[in-house]
Amino acid sequence: MPLVAVTMPQLGESIAEATIIRLDVAIGSEVQADQEIIEVETNKATMGVTTLCGGVVKELFAEEGETYAVGTILGLLEATAEEVERTGVTVHGDESAATPVEEEVNRPHDYRPGTEEESYTPPKVEVEPSVQGLKVPAGGLQGAHYISPRMRARMNELGLQGADVSAIAGSGAGGRVTVEDLESFLSYIEGWPGTKASPMRLAVADAMRRSWTRPLATVGMEAPLEKLVAYRKTLDPKPGLTLFLLRAFGLALKEHPATAGFLVGQKVVHPKAYDIGVAVQVEDGVVVPVVRNVDQRSVSELSADYENLVVQSRDKKVPEEAVGGGIATVTNFGTFGLRWATPVPLPSETLILGMGSGEKRPVWDEAAGQFVPVLEAELTLTFDHRVVDGGGAGVLLRRVVELLQNPEDL
Questions:
Q1: Are residues 190 and 217 in the same domain?
Q2: Which end of the chain is more exposed for a tag (fewer CB within 10 A), N or C?
Q3: For each of the chain's 410 residues, which pLDDT tens digit applies?
């Protein structure tokens, strides 16, 4: 009977690999077309691998906890000729079927149905995480900026980045960290308790490391919340404050598109759509689903989509259409009781806007001639200083605050 490959699909923009979380079938299991049979975790969310046709699971090459590149064959299905014809799938091992799908699959070329070898174990695709962190002791240790070729080679062997060894005290010339310093440090922490970093934790580490290659700066401003909170009480259901912040940010960016650009060489690329991400805290990381066309839809029109995205993100099941492509991000760190923070934008974005927790503060009322209690929250805007200057960031942030004073127009 024809065999059909189950491959690691392209699960989103810029996703090159995924880790197997759970196998939902076993060899011999009967499956239907479009059935989710493997659960995987990418650096953005938890997703499922589905079948292209119905049949019986002939082989399973994937192992739970292992990471595989996009296109790697995870298993083989045995299907009837009628099912293959009905679904139009490519038969595994059919050299004549030169379809785009077939060209993208990393097929095991030394396996053919009907040979004496009944099972095939594909060569394992070694996918090294881009960041493998080391726990370092706190203290007054100093590292060196220069890394020798020998030291770099040893770091590459261990999968280490410069940030992983920056706290090691260097004994070389000018405080340079030597290979001997590194080996001594590794021996020092060898007995320390530790856990394996999840793919999401590694992805966050990688993104933040790349973000900090740019000159980032932060400005802040108080935002009165009295009108916003009063207006929100009149609505049913009541949208979260983050949604109002998201909408105001989108409108402000549309008025000041230059602040939302990103620098490529000697060119500033401006946004073609005002799609903004929302930072959602999940276990061992942060998921940032993207809300599309924020400038074109009111808070009431955005509400249902926004709430669904937040729920799906907390389950790490962000829909594909909400992954990537955002021009900026909003984050409500006030939900953790924080009044002030300096959030870091994603490497592909220039801006991130944060909101702190609201609190009553004494504000001078000129008409009354006295201080009156006003509910306020701190807004902070972190930006890429290569693209935006402090003045431009301040104008953008002030416009967000102004828009929040007229919540009924959002």
A1: no
A2: N
A3: 889 999 988 876 667 788 898 999 999 999 999 899 999 887 667 888 999 999 999 999 999 888 888 889 999 999 999 998 888 888 887 544 333 333 333 433 333 444 444 444 444 444 444 344 443 333 333 444 567 778 888 888 888 887 788 778 777 776 788 888 888 888 888 888 888 888 888 888 888 888 888 999 999 999 999 999 999 989 888 888 999 999 999 999 999 988 888 888 888 888 889 999 999 988 778 889 899 999 999 999 998 888 888 888 888 888 888 888 889 999 999 988 889 999 999 988 999 999 999 888 888 888 888 898 888 999 999 999 999 999 999 999 999 999 999 999 99
Helix (H, G, I), strand (E, B) or coil at 77: strand
Pair 350, 297 in one domain: yes
Residue whose pair of structure tokens reads 């702190």 in the numeric block: 356
Neighbours of 377 (CB within 10 A): 23
Among 104, 123, 157, the domain boundary falls at 104
- Does 287 share its domain with 169? no
Residues 97 and 164 placed together within one structural domain of the fold? no
Give the residue numbers spanning the domain of 87: 3-104
DSSP 367-404: TTTEEEEEEEEEEEEEEETTT--HHHHHHHHHHHHHHH
Give the domain-ending residue among 104, 134, 161: 104
**10 Å Cβ neighbour count for 296?**
13
